[in-house]
Amino acid sequence: MNLAIVRKWINPLNAFYSYVASSLTGKVTGKWMPVFIGVELTNHCNLNCPECFTGSGQMTRPKGFMSPKLFDRILDETGQYLYNVNLFFQGEPMMHPDFFVLLGKTANYHTIVSTNGQFLTPGNASKLAASGLRRLIVSLDGMDESTYSSYRQGGDLQKVVDGIKNVTEAIKRHSSSLRLEIQFLVNRQNESQIPAAMQFASEVNAKLKLKSMQLLDEENAGEWLPAGEKFRRYRVENGRIIIKSRMRNSCLRLWLNPVVTWDGKVIPCCFDKNADHILGDLNTQSFRDIWNGEKAIKFRQSLLDSRNKIEICRNCTTGLSGVKY
Questions:
Q1: If exposure means fewest CB atoms within 10 Å of the residue's CB, which of 152, 233, 314, 316 is most exposed?
Q2: Which residue has the higher pLDDT, 159 or 308?
């Protein structure tokens, strides 16, 4: 059997074994490489969504665009182990000036892009359909302009609707295997429009994902928390929002799925929006040294010891039950 294939099969087994053994013993053990990875092409965004770190202005880290050289290095060091590549984190990935060049380099992986849908012109939709991209997630959080723009501030609903239709037509034209997914962040403003969103998704041959919404500002929780309990990620206690999670001292994300910020910082997972827990810097270290290094081990150990004391876990969906996320 080809050595590369063997390596790709053994690595996730090592990761899962380490996760189980570490969770049972309460002590981090083993060495492995990521199975999935998130790559932040940019943390710039063209919208101002109020409960988003980028859009709300709460992000304090620098903004920029990932260099193609750094992108190549990430794939060079991790690609032989990866099954899935997410080309999004904070920001709008399609704003990257070399977006389609970088996307083309991930054709051999199960690659996912999430976009706010403002750049899905007929030409861009055609490129996406022909690129080898496996899944495109488009945010559509309202079915009329008023509802949509209450959250997607600065966005244009009609542009998103037309963009989704452009992608549907491009998929047909190219006989593409690209899967189109419409993401609907359910909140107090739009929950009554779920049936209309379902109808639209059916018309454009897309999957509809109803998703619970993260909240960053407790003072505005009443404006966004939906009435439907199954769409609430939080419960309210004494005026505070508390994640509806059992907060077990384990989380598979920390063993499988790191994120690399646009400037090369490796962080534990997609809930570390502001990169408060930097495990290492690819500008000065190898990915393997970072992922199996002292800072990564220490962070995993802190999770095994007391996950509820880690701030980024207060929005995490791991451990939620009975909630759409």
A1: 314
A2: 159
- pLDDT band at 322, cuts 50/70/90? low
Nearest 5°: the CA angle 159, 162, 163 is 80
Give the pLDDT of residue 8: 84
Task: Kindly state the tokens that stand for 73.
Answer: 């290095």
Q: Find all residues with CB under 8 Å of 203, minimum gap 6, and list them.
A: none
The CA angle 38-220-275, to the nearest 5 degrees, is 25
CB 188 within 8 A of CB 194: no
Distance CA(205)–CA(193), nearest Å, equals 18
**Residue 306 in tokens:** 């007391």
Provide the β-strand partners of residue 113: 136
Residue 123: Cβ within 10 Å count: 10
pTM score over 0.85: yes
Measured CA to CA, the distance from residue 260 to residue 291 in angstroms comes to 11
Q: Which residue carries 């290492």 as its tokens?
A: 280
Mean pLDDT of 258-284: 97
pLDDT digits (tens, 9 = 90+) for 127-143: 999 999 999 999 999 99
What is the residue whose two structure tokens read 């309210």?
236
Q: Are strands 84-86 and 36-39 parallel, antiparallel or unpaired?
A: parallel
pLDDT digits (tens, 9 = 90+) for 16-71: 999 999 999 999 999 999 999 999 999 999 999 999 989 888 999 999 999 999 99
Contacts of 47 (CB under 8 A, 6+ apart): 55, 92, 116, 118, 152, 153, 154, 155
Dist. CA 231–CA 213, nearest whole Å? 8
Query: Secondary structure of 5-50 in the HEC alphabet?
Result: HHHHHHHHHHHHHHHHHHHHHCCCCCCCCCCEEEECCECCCCCCCC
